[in-house]
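fyi for ur records
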Amino acid sequence: MGAHCLTPLVFLGALLVLPQLLLASTTRYYTFNVTMKKVTRLCKTRAIPTVNGKFPGPKILTREGDRVVVKVVNNVKQNVTIHWHGVRQLRTGWSDGPAYITQCPIQTGQSYVYNFNITGQRGTLFWHAHVSWLRATLYGPIVILPKLGMPYPFPKPYREVPVIFGEWFNVDPEAIIAQALQTGGGPNVSDAYTINGLPGPLYNCSSKDTFKLKVQPGKWYLLRLINAALNDELFFSIANHTLTVVDVDAAYVKPFDTDVVLVTPGQTTNVLLRAKPHDGCPPATHLMLARPYATGRVGTYDNTTVAAILEYAPAGHIKSRPLFRPTLPVFNDTAFAANYSAKLRSLASPDYPANVPRWVDRPFFFTVGLGTNPCPTYQGCNGPTNDTKFSASVNNVSFDMPTTALLKAHYDGNAAGVYTSDFPSVPLVPFNYTGTPPNNTNVSNGTKVVVLSYNTSVEVVLQDTSIQGAESHPLHLHGFDFFVVGQGVGNYDSSQDPAKFNLLDPVQRNTVGVPAGGWVAIRFYADNPGVWFMHCHLEVHTSWGLKMAWVVNDGPLSDQKLMPPPSDLPKC
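which gave:
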């Protein structure tokens, strides 16, 4: 792309204020009716679960300091829950949403009211189903505006646009994962990626299903990027346009320019885009492309590319204009991923401080990766060998989902028979994590948790392993934001690596990519009582058991205790 077409961001000295959203600190009510709806993509029509008949689902629009109340009514045959991904849920774990962790699912014909506050967050998050693979179609954006009267710490955008990445399957994803779990093999991949539910013109029978972003020359646009895909991290770029990253996971960052953004499942990224002035470039069609970042993946992955169109108003006839495509990294460009991640830094300003734990009460070292389970004797399997099934684990413990909610068992003091508190803080059998895998790759199984005292300062080093191939794992922690204080390649060195940690302005996130063949270190304060899920946001790995839970006990003060369960809490 020609340098004359690039428009670097020049930050304004004056901070500009967003248009106001009615009232300060209010309660916003929504009703989510989960219903089946016939949707056609790629010339294939199938009935999919939707919220209010929309795919993607409706936007939650709120403001920092607001209370959000959402009544979810289940009108489909499957059990349903909704997770408000990234929302802190301070003392309101009953509204977090993961099935059998914080609640029993909402059964057919039943309803449940999610009730939570937006505290200390502004930017973009999203909501999605948290049962099996239902989030393939049950997802939508959460837009959190700053408190009334508080400006953005970047130029005021002319318009704000959610850009949600997803995956489309021509068959029911529930059937896909059910078959994979039965055979022990990898699941069939998606048939297309989508942008705002549309696959775009690069797929067969899809040219009319294309998202078009219409822009006016010289105007600023805030794109709220959300990766709601099931199983794929994605590179994203817009031809002939530079993007400025200003916010990730609803936390401001030091702005930086980039031609390519990397977003893992579970992550959000706000970027500023400046449309070209009238004389900046001749009339042309600029493609917005996304395709996977895939490292050491077992089996196959969807290696297709989704396209949308950046269209200058008034629209011209696309076929008569030059077509520009952006250049994306190769699918396994780990160097780009590491360099991109290293650019992310918190603002760490007086208004938006980075409250990084400087000391650590409880250090943990968790291996994350794949493994195996023996194949049942009565069947052959499609796993790594014909007598093994794929599995996944944290510290070689593959998490067994309970049949009742962990949070209720914790609240009632009735953990016996539901979970045990002996999750290992380090691997029980150390090995060369990124070297030659051990001969025995079988995992253990259990419903194990870590118990933390209130306000404990926690450090977790997440180490990828080479078992069944090293690969990146986007780890999501419910109930908290954490600071990414360090990352590296190879095996973590506890004697050398901590000296390189960034404790001044590390990025604040709720989902972090554990580097393929490397490690990442996070820190947080356990200041939110409840039971909090932590899992890989590649849905196949979650299905295979790459998940665990933290139990945070109440603090001594009244505002440090988990609220009582609501009266309409679903029963198992």
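The chain has a mean pLDDT of 93. thats all i got for now
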